[in-house]
Amino acid sequence: MDDSPIDAIRKALEREKAAHRGYVEYARSAVQPEIRELFLFLAEEEKKHAKLLTDEIEKETLREM
User: Domain map of the chain by residue range?
Assistant: First the structure.
């Protein structure tokens, strides 16, 4: 495995952002309100995950200073 832990976190962050965008798009195209709400809920969960990963990146960056 060539990636450092911070590289792995950055890759995970990109996946979370992509998942968020995907769920938002699915919500926009959903016809049924229940399905739209499900995708919006999932999008918000991905946003929370992205925030956690961003916080970890920031903490690691500050440690390196």
Answer: 5-64
